[in-house]
Protein backbone atom coordinates (compact mmCIF):
# COMPACT_ATOMS: atom_id res chain seq x y z
CA UNK A 1 0.00 0.00 0.00
CA UNK A 2 1.36 3.42 -1.00
CA UNK A 3 0.57 5.35 2.17
CA UNK A 4 0.88 9.14 1.81
CA UNK A 5 3.48 11.47 3.19
CA UNK A 6 1.63 13.62 5.72
CA UNK A 7 3.05 17.06 6.49
CA UNK A 8 1.60 18.91 9.46
CA UNK A 9 2.09 22.62 8.90
CA UNK A 10 1.78 24.88 5.85
CA UNK A 11 4.53 27.37 6.62
CA UNK A 12 7.73 27.85 4.64
CA UNK A 13 9.13 24.48 5.72
CA UNK A 14 6.03 22.45 4.95
CA UNK A 15 5.35 23.95 1.54
CA UNK A 16 9.02 24.03 0.50
CA UNK A 17 9.25 20.32 1.33
CA UNK A 18 6.07 19.51 -0.61
CA UNK A 19 7.27 21.39 -3.70
CA UNK A 20 10.77 19.91 -3.57
CA UNK A 21 9.46 16.38 -3.09
CA UNK A 22 6.96 16.70 -5.92
CA UNK A 23 9.81 17.49 -8.32
CA UNK A 24 11.36 14.14 -7.37
CA UNK A 25 8.23 12.01 -7.17
CA UNK A 26 5.11 12.91 -9.14
CA UNK A 27 2.84 10.08 -8.01
CA UNK A 28 3.01 9.38 -4.29
CA UNK A 29 0.21 11.10 -2.36
CA UNK A 30 1.20 14.06 -0.20
CA UNK A 31 -1.20 15.59 2.33
CA UNK A 32 -0.59 18.91 4.10
CA UNK A 33 -2.66 19.46 7.26
CA UNK A 34 -2.88 23.01 8.57
CA UNK A 35 -4.88 24.71 11.31
CA UNK A 36 -5.11 28.00 9.39
CA UNK A 37 -6.33 28.75 5.87
CA UNK A 38 -3.16 27.33 4.30
CA UNK A 39 -2.24 30.49 2.38
CA UNK A 40 1.36 30.68 1.21
CA UNK A 41 2.97 33.99 2.19
CA UNK A 42 6.50 35.28 2.95
CA UNK A 43 6.61 35.18 6.74
CA UNK A 44 9.85 37.24 7.02
CA UNK A 45 7.97 40.15 5.42
CA UNK A 46 5.51 40.38 8.32
CA UNK A 47 7.85 42.39 10.49
CA UNK A 48 7.99 45.34 8.10
CA UNK A 49 4.88 44.98 5.92
CA UNK A 50 3.02 47.39 8.21
CA UNK A 51 5.54 50.14 7.51
CA UNK A 52 4.94 49.64 3.80
CA UNK A 53 1.18 49.77 4.19
CA UNK A 54 0.72 46.24 2.85
CA UNK A 55 -2.54 44.45 3.63
CA UNK A 56 -2.56 40.82 4.69
CA UNK A 57 -4.18 39.89 1.39
CA UNK A 58 -1.38 41.57 -0.58
CA UNK A 59 1.14 39.31 1.17
CA UNK A 60 -0.53 36.11 -0.02
CA UNK A 61 1.36 34.48 -2.88
CA UNK A 62 -0.99 31.53 -3.33
CA UNK A 63 -4.12 30.25 -1.64
CA UNK A 64 -4.21 26.69 -0.31
CA UNK A 65 -6.19 25.53 -3.34
CA UNK A 66 -3.66 27.14 -5.69
CA UNK A 67 -0.77 25.42 -3.89
CA UNK A 68 -2.62 22.11 -4.10
CA UNK A 69 -3.30 22.52 -7.81
CA UNK A 70 0.27 23.57 -8.61
CA UNK A 71 1.93 20.70 -6.72
CA UNK A 72 -0.71 17.96 -7.10
CA UNK A 73 -0.99 17.53 -3.34
CA UNK A 74 -3.93 17.60 -0.95
CA UNK A 75 -4.15 20.53 1.48
CA UNK A 76 -6.55 20.29 4.43
CA UNK A 77 -7.02 23.86 5.73
CA UNK A 78 -8.71 24.78 9.02
CA UNK A 79 -7.94 21.26 10.27
CA UNK A 80 -6.53 20.62 13.73
CA UNK A 81 -4.64 17.48 14.65
CA UNK A 82 -6.08 15.99 17.83
CA UNK A 83 -3.53 13.22 18.39
CA UNK A 84 -0.85 11.16 16.66
CA UNK A 85 -0.54 7.42 17.18
CA UNK A 86 3.10 6.78 16.27
CA UNK A 87 2.74 3.01 16.73
CA UNK A 88 -0.18 2.66 14.31
CA UNK A 89 1.03 5.53 12.08
CA UNK A 90 -2.25 7.40 12.42
CA UNK A 91 -3.02 11.11 12.58
CA UNK A 92 -6.35 11.78 14.28
CA UNK A 93 -8.19 14.85 13.00
CA UNK A 94 -11.31 14.66 15.13
CA UNK A 95 -13.92 13.23 12.76
CA UNK A 96 -11.43 11.37 10.57
CA UNK A 97 -8.00 9.76 10.63
CA UNK A 98 -5.08 9.75 8.21
CA UNK A 99 -2.73 6.81 7.81
CA UNK A 100 0.77 7.88 6.92
CA UNK A 101 3.81 6.21 5.46
CA UNK A 102 6.06 9.05 6.60
CA UNK A 103 5.05 11.92 8.86
CA UNK A 104 6.71 15.33 8.90
CA UNK A 105 6.11 17.75 11.77
CA UNK A 106 6.55 21.27 10.41
CA UNK A 107 4.44 22.89 13.09
CA UNK A 108 6.65 25.91 13.72
CA UNK A 109 6.92 27.87 16.94
CA UNK A 110 4.71 30.11 19.02
CA UNK A 111 5.66 33.58 20.25
CA UNK A 112 7.11 33.76 23.74
CA UNK A 113 5.39 36.41 25.85
CA UNK A 114 7.03 37.09 29.23
CA UNK A 115 4.76 36.80 32.27
CA UNK A 116 2.80 40.00 32.91
CA UNK A 117 -0.08 40.83 35.22
CA UNK A 118 -2.90 43.31 34.70
CA UNK A 119 -6.43 43.24 33.32
CA UNK A 120 -5.20 43.99 29.76
CA UNK A 121 -2.28 41.57 29.58
CA UNK A 122 -4.22 39.51 27.05
CA UNK A 123 -4.30 42.43 24.59
CA UNK A 124 -0.58 42.11 23.80
CA UNK A 125 0.00 41.68 20.07
CA UNK A 126 2.45 39.22 18.53
CA UNK A 127 3.49 38.90 14.91
CA UNK A 128 4.06 35.28 13.91
CA UNK A 129 1.38 34.51 11.32
CA UNK A 130 -0.87 36.09 8.74
CA UNK A 131 -3.76 36.00 11.22
CA UNK A 132 -1.53 37.82 13.74
CA UNK A 133 -0.76 40.41 11.09
CA UNK A 134 -4.45 41.03 10.38
CA UNK A 135 -5.06 41.73 14.07
CA UNK A 136 -1.85 43.77 14.23
CA UNK A 137 -2.98 46.01 11.38
CA UNK A 138 -6.44 46.55 12.79
CA UNK A 139 -5.24 47.41 16.29
CA UNK A 140 -2.44 49.70 15.12
CA UNK A 141 -4.48 51.56 12.51
CA UNK A 142 -5.76 54.11 15.04
CA UNK A 143 -2.90 53.87 17.55
CA UNK A 144 -0.62 56.84 18.10
CA UNK A 145 1.63 55.51 20.87
CA UNK A 146 2.97 51.96 20.60
CA UNK A 147 5.05 49.99 23.08
CA UNK A 148 7.37 47.33 21.61
CA UNK A 149 8.73 44.71 24.00
CA UNK A 150 12.01 43.19 22.80
CA UNK A 151 15.08 44.63 21.10
CA UNK A 152 16.25 41.60 19.14
CA UNK A 153 16.02 41.13 15.37
CA UNK A 154 12.24 41.18 15.04
CA UNK A 155 11.55 43.73 17.76
CA UNK A 156 14.03 46.16 16.23
CA UNK A 157 12.54 45.71 12.76
CA UNK A 158 9.02 46.26 14.09
CA UNK A 159 10.04 49.37 16.03
CA UNK A 160 11.85 50.73 12.96
CA UNK A 161 8.77 50.39 10.76
CA UNK A 162 6.09 51.48 13.22
CA UNK A 163 8.15 54.59 14.04
CA UNK A 164 7.60 55.78 10.48
CA UNK A 165 3.97 56.47 11.42
CA UNK A 166 3.64 56.28 15.22
CA UNK A 167 5.40 57.22 18.44
CA UNK A 168 7.30 54.14 19.65
CA UNK A 169 8.82 53.12 22.97
CA UNK A 170 11.01 50.01 22.99
CA UNK A 171 11.62 48.15 26.27
CA UNK A 172 14.30 45.48 26.57
CA UNK A 173 15.93 43.70 29.50
CA UNK A 174 19.35 44.04 27.84
CA UNK A 175 21.53 47.13 27.55
CA UNK A 176 21.12 47.70 23.80
CA UNK A 177 19.37 46.49 20.65
CA UNK A 178 20.71 43.33 18.99
CA UNK A 179 22.67 42.64 22.17
CA UNK A 180 23.02 38.91 21.39
CA UNK A 181 23.72 39.30 17.67
CA UNK A 182 25.91 42.35 17.06
CA UNK A 183 28.81 44.27 18.62
CA UNK A 184 28.05 47.39 20.69
CA UNK A 185 29.19 49.75 17.94
CA UNK A 186 26.59 48.35 15.51
CA UNK A 187 23.90 48.67 18.17
CA UNK A 188 24.94 52.27 18.82
CA UNK A 189 24.78 53.24 15.14
CA UNK A 190 21.41 51.55 14.70
CA UNK A 191 19.98 53.20 17.80
CA UNK A 192 21.20 56.58 16.56
CA UNK A 193 19.44 55.97 13.23
CA UNK A 194 16.26 55.19 15.18
CA UNK A 195 16.43 58.50 17.00
CA UNK A 196 12.64 58.84 17.09
CA UNK A 197 12.30 55.66 19.18
CA UNK A 198 12.32 56.02 22.98
CA UNK A 199 14.55 53.20 24.25
CA UNK A 200 14.11 51.85 27.79
CA UNK A 201 16.95 49.37 28.32
CA UNK A 202 17.63 47.23 31.37
CA UNK A 203 13.91 47.12 32.03
CA UNK A 204 10.86 44.94 31.52
CA UNK A 205 7.09 45.23 31.47
CA UNK A 206 5.48 43.77 34.59
CA UNK A 207 1.82 44.68 34.04
CA UNK A 208 -0.58 46.01 31.43
CA UNK A 209 -3.89 47.49 32.56
CA UNK A 210 -6.79 49.16 30.83
CA UNK A 211 -6.72 52.94 31.33
CA UNK A 212 -9.91 54.27 29.78
CA UNK A 213 -9.64 53.56 26.07
CA UNK A 214 -5.83 53.32 26.34
CA UNK A 215 -3.36 50.99 28.06
CA UNK A 216 -1.09 51.60 31.05
CA UNK A 217 2.13 49.60 31.04
CA UNK A 218 4.02 49.31 34.32
CA UNK A 219 7.78 48.76 34.13
CA UNK A 220 10.00 46.93 36.61
CA UNK A 221 11.58 50.23 37.70
CA UNK A 222 8.13 51.53 38.69
CA UNK A 223 7.69 53.86 35.74
CA UNK A 224 4.42 53.73 33.78
CA UNK A 225 3.71 54.35 30.10
CA UNK A 226 0.33 55.19 28.60
CA UNK A 227 0.04 53.73 25.10
CA UNK A 228 -2.54 52.62 22.57
CA UNK A 229 -1.09 49.20 21.73
CA UNK A 230 1.59 46.80 22.96
CA UNK A 231 3.57 44.54 20.62
CA UNK A 232 5.73 41.72 22.01
CA UNK A 233 8.72 40.35 20.07
CA UNK A 234 10.78 38.47 22.65
CA UNK A 235 11.43 35.27 20.77
CA UNK A 236 9.79 31.97 19.84
CA UNK A 237 9.21 28.63 21.54
CA UNK A 238 8.96 25.50 19.34
CA UNK A 239 5.51 23.91 19.32
CA UNK A 240 5.77 20.57 21.09
CA UNK A 241 2.08 19.77 21.61
CA UNK A 242 2.10 16.99 19.00
CA UNK A 243 5.51 15.64 19.99
CA UNK A 244 4.40 13.54 22.95
CA UNK A 245 6.29 10.27 22.59
CA UNK A 246 9.22 11.88 20.76
CA UNK A 247 12.56 12.99 22.20
CA UNK A 248 12.41 16.74 22.83
CA UNK A 249 14.61 19.39 24.37
CA UNK A 250 14.09 23.01 23.35
CA UNK A 251 12.63 21.61 20.14
CA UNK A 252 11.90 18.20 18.64
CA UNK A 253 15.27 16.45 18.60
CA UNK A 254 16.31 15.28 15.13
CA UNK A 255 19.50 14.00 13.54
CA UNK A 256 21.16 15.41 10.43
CA UNK A 257 18.61 13.53 8.33
CA UNK A 258 15.76 15.31 10.20
CA UNK A 259 14.72 11.96 11.74
CA UNK A 260 13.05 12.04 15.15
CA UNK A 261 13.30 9.29 17.77
CA UNK A 262 10.39 7.42 16.14
CA UNK A 263 10.63 5.53 12.87
CA UNK A 264 8.96 7.18 9.85
CA UNK A 265 8.64 10.52 11.69
CA UNK A 266 10.61 13.67 10.81
CA UNK A 267 10.63 17.28 12.05
CA UNK A 268 11.45 20.40 10.09
CA UNK A 269 11.76 24.14 10.61
CA UNK A 270 11.17 26.22 13.74
CA UNK A 271 10.07 23.19 15.78
CA UNK A 272 13.17 21.06 15.06
CA UNK A 273 16.37 20.97 17.10
CA UNK A 274 19.52 19.88 15.26
CA UNK A 275 22.81 19.48 17.16
CA UNK A 276 21.34 21.39 20.08
CA UNK A 277 20.24 24.31 17.92
CA UNK A 278 16.87 25.58 16.77
CA UNK A 279 17.39 27.60 13.58
CA UNK A 280 14.28 29.72 12.90
CA UNK A 281 15.65 31.37 9.75
CA UNK A 282 14.68 31.06 6.12
CA UNK A 283 17.94 29.63 4.76
CA UNK A 284 18.38 26.69 7.19
CA UNK A 285 14.69 25.80 6.82
CA UNK A 286 15.04 25.80 3.03
CA UNK A 287 18.19 23.65 3.18
CA UNK A 288 16.46 21.24 5.58
CA UNK A 289 13.37 20.93 3.40
CA UNK A 290 15.40 20.22 0.25
CA UNK A 291 17.52 17.59 2.03
CA UNK A 292 14.46 15.91 3.51
CA UNK A 293 12.77 15.82 0.09
CA UNK A 294 15.73 13.81 -1.20
CA UNK A 295 15.49 11.42 1.75
CA UNK A 296 11.75 10.88 1.32
CA UNK A 297 12.30 10.28 -2.40
CA UNK A 298 14.70 7.43 -1.64
CA UNK A 299 18.11 9.12 -1.43
CA UNK A 300 19.06 9.54 2.26
CA UNK A 301 20.52 13.04 2.56
CA UNK A 302 21.93 14.82 5.59
CA UNK A 303 21.38 18.55 5.85
CA UNK A 304 24.56 20.63 5.99
CA UNK A 305 24.62 24.21 7.24
CA UNK A 306 27.48 26.43 6.21
CA UNK A 307 27.88 30.00 7.47
CA UNK A 308 24.52 31.68 6.95
CA UNK A 309 23.94 35.41 6.48
CA UNK A 310 21.10 37.23 8.25
CA UNK A 311 19.82 40.63 7.13
CA UNK A 312 18.19 42.95 9.65
CA UNK A 313 15.51 44.81 7.72
CA UNK A 314 16.13 48.33 9.06
CA UNK A 315 16.60 50.50 5.94
CA UNK A 316 17.59 53.59 7.93
CA UNK A 317 20.68 51.64 8.99
CA UNK A 318 20.84 48.22 7.29
CA UNK A 319 22.62 45.51 9.28
CA UNK A 320 24.01 42.21 7.99
CA UNK A 321 25.25 39.36 10.17
CA UNK A 322 27.10 36.18 9.30
CA UNK A 323 28.74 33.29 11.12
CA UNK A 324 29.33 33.50 14.88
CA UNK A 325 28.57 36.95 16.28
CA UNK A 326 27.70 36.17 19.91
CA UNK A 327 29.61 35.03 22.97
CA UNK A 328 33.29 35.72 23.57
CA UNK A 329 34.38 37.64 20.49
CA UNK A 330 37.28 39.93 19.67
CA UNK A 331 35.88 42.56 17.30
CA UNK A 332 37.98 44.29 14.66
CA UNK A 333 36.18 47.45 13.56
CA UNK A 334 36.61 49.30 10.25
CA UNK A 335 34.38 52.33 9.72
CA UNK A 336 34.20 55.04 7.08
CA UNK A 337 31.65 57.53 5.83
CA UNK A 338 29.79 54.77 3.98
CA UNK A 339 29.32 52.34 6.86
CA UNK A 340 30.98 49.88 9.20
CA UNK A 341 32.42 46.37 9.10
CA UNK A 342 33.04 44.46 12.32
CA UNK A 343 35.03 41.22 12.02
CA UNK A 344 34.46 38.63 14.74
CA UNK A 345 37.74 36.94 15.68
CA UNK A 346 38.47 33.91 17.86
CA UNK A 347 41.97 32.57 18.31
CA UNK A 348 43.12 34.66 15.37
CA UNK A 349 40.48 33.26 13.01
CA UNK A 350 37.59 35.05 11.36
CA UNK A 351 34.43 33.34 12.63
CA UNK A 352 31.77 35.94 11.86
CA UNK A 353 31.00 39.49 10.86
CA UNK A 354 28.51 42.30 11.31
CA UNK A 355 28.16 45.16 8.86
CA UNK A 356 26.13 48.34 9.01
CA UNK A 357 25.15 51.16 6.71
CA UNK A 358 26.45 50.84 3.17
CA UNK A 359 28.97 48.06 3.92
CA UNK A 360 28.16 44.57 2.63
CA UNK A 361 29.59 41.57 4.47
CA UNK A 362 28.56 38.91 1.98
CA UNK A 363 32.08 38.77 0.51
CA UNK A 364 33.36 37.69 3.95
CA UNK A 365 31.24 34.53 4.07
CA UNK A 366 33.75 32.30 2.20
CA UNK A 367 36.52 33.46 4.56
CA UNK A 368 34.81 32.30 7.77
CA UNK A 369 36.52 29.51 9.69
CA UNK A 370 34.42 26.35 9.80
Structural topology:
Blueprint lengths: L4 E4 L3 H13 L5 E4 L12 H4 L6 H4 L4 H8 L2 E3 L6 E3 L4 E3 L4 E3 L2 E4 L3 E3 L18 H12 L3 E5 L3 H10 L4 E6 L11 H10 L3 E5 L3 E7 L2 E6 L4 E4 L1 E4 L3 E3 L13 E3 L10 E3 L4 E3 L7 H15 L12 E4 L6 E5 L6 E7 L2 E8 L2 E9 L13
Parallel strand pairs: 1-2, 1-7, 2-3, 7-18, 9-10, 9-15, 10-11, 17-19
Antiparallel strand pairs: 4-5, 5-6, 8-16, 12-13, 13-14, 20-21, 21-24, 22-23, 23-24
InterPro entries: FAD-bd_OxRdtase, FAD/NAD-bd_sf, FAD/NAD-binding_dom, Rbx-bd
Keywords: Cytoplasm, FAD, Flavoprotein, NAD, Oxidoreductase
Organism: Jeongeupia chitinilytica
Concise description?
The protein is α/β, with parallel strands linked by helices. The chain has eight helices and 24 strands. It has three domains: 167 residues, FAD/NAD(P)-binding domain; 120 residues, FAD/NAD(P)-binding domain; 50 residues, no CATH class.
DSSP helix count? 8
Unreliable runs: none
Mean pLDDT rating: 95
- Rg calc: 22 Å
In spatial order, strands of the major sheet run: 3-2-1-7-18
Name the CATH superfamily classification of the largest domain: FAD/NAD(P)-binding domain
The major pleated sheet works out as: 5 strands, parallel
| Count of extended strands | 24
Helix % is 10-25%
State the separation between the terminal residues, measured CA to CA: 44 Å
Question: By helix and strand content, what is the structural category?
Answer: alpha/beta
Using the coordinates above, name the CATH class of the largest domain: Alpha Beta
CATH topology of the largest domain: FAD/NAD(P)-binding domain
Percent of residues in beta strands?
A: 25-35%
Number of domains: 3
At CATH's second level, what is the architecture of the largest domain?
3-Layer(bba) Sandwich
- Report the principal-axis shape: globular
Amino acid sequence: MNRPIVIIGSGHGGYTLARAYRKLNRTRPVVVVTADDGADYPKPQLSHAFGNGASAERLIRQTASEVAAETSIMVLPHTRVQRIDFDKQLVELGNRTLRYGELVLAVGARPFVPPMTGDAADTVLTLNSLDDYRQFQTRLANANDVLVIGGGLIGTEIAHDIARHKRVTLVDVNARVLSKQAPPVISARLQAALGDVDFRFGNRVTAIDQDGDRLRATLADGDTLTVDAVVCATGLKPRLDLAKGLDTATGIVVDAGLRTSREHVYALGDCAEIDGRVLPYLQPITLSANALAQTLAGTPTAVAFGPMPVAVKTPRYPVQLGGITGGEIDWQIDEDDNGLTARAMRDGQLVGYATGGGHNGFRLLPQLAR
